[in-house]
Specification:
The protein is an all-alpha fold. It has a single domain, classed as Tetracycline Repressor, domain 2, CATH 1.10.357.10. The protein is built from seven helices and no strands.
Length: 163
């Protein structure tokens, strides 16, 4: 396709970016949901979230670019609401997993699901960005992301079990 034929369908570069971002987020949520549905509910499902996200990042070369795009669109007043909504979907999904684990008694009721979900989503996004910045190549990035993900999982387990 030529640039002209792509732009025929979108009013601007921002509109194209919004369409790509919206579609990618929907695909990612669906892929993660599909993977989590095979894991028993509760703490095990919450623990399965991080490996599912790591696999998503590893399997989709656009993941890092789209993550940065979402951050950039959040800084533009015209697209901030959409970037916020898409990030909110991830936070809400993680908070739902925490609430499910609380309902069956595997996670302390003293844990604020919304706050923990916000921290986890932010930590994962920050980990991605930092690893990408400091890694020399994709293999090193994958290794650092996996190691950082394991540490993040251990920190999450400590937070949900110790309260």
């Amino acid at each position: 396709m030529t640039k002209g034929s792509v732009y025929f369908h979108f009013e601007s570069k921002e509109a194209l970016a919004v369409a790509v971002l919206t579609e990618k987020h929907a695909q990612w949520l669906d892929r993660v949901e599909t993977r989590l549905v095979t894991t028993p509910p509760g703490l095990r499902r919450l623990e399965a979230l991080l490996p599912a996200m790591l696999d998503l990042d590893r399997d989709d070369p656009d993941a890092w670019v789209i993550s940065r795009l979402a951050q950039n669109l959040a800084e533009v007043p015209a697209t901030r609401a959409l970037a916020t909504e898409l990030t909110r979907r991830w936070i809400d999904r993680v908070a739902d997993l925490i609430r499910d684990a609380q309902r069956i008694g595997e996670v302390s009721g003293g844990v604020d699901p919304e706050l923990l979900a916000t921290v986890l989503v932010g930590a994962f996004d920050g980990l991605e960005t930092t690893v990408e910045t400091v890694s020399e190549d994709n293999r090193t990035a994958d290794q650092r992301l996996a190691a950082g993900g394991a540490l993040l999982l251990a920190m999450m387990q400590s937070a949900v079990l110790s309260r």
